[in-house]
Write a structure and sequence with these properties.
The structure is a single chain. With about 170 residues, the chain is mostly helical. The protein is built from 7 helices and 5 strands; from the N terminus they run ααβααββββααα. The chain is about 45% helix and about 10% strand. It has a 3-stranded antiparallel sheet with strand order 1-5-2. The chain has a two-stranded antiparallel sheet with strand order 3-4. The radius of gyration is 19 Å and the shape is globular. The N and C termini lie far apart (about 40 Å).
Amino acid sequence: MDASADDGARARALASPLRMRILRLCLHEPRTNKELAEELGVNPGSMLHHVRSLVSTGFLEAAEPRRGTRGAREVPYRATRRSWRTPVPGVGPILLETFLQETEGLMPDDINATRLGLKLTPENRDAMLAEFEAVFQRWAARPSDADGDPISLFFVEHPDLPRDSRRGARD
């Protein structure tokens, strides 16, 4: 498979909120197909398809097999953190849907959100986003705190468009 085909397969693997959620769940502790299916409310056979796609593209790797409660061999998977450095065209809506699914049912006080309106030149906008990217990259590269609590961060930047130029107003 050539590099562009590999890139396409990786982008397709990440083009699913469910797969993004699988990666988040496997980031700090390895999880089996059964554990993932139960946590996400998905049929184990369907989950296996998604897990295999993430393994074949290098986003998940198998950990040491273990014995389940009935003695069956179970393979836990852990996220490789490769997704963080993988460009995915049009990823914004996928990340937004992933975020909405992950926060569904949380109490409002459990969600910390910040919103800020700015007016910037394209150069200053690019500089600001580069700073945020550098901060995210620096924290993503750190090892997890063994005694820490898992959290997720979501940062959104978007243009403030007049109502009549928004897609919903034109449809």
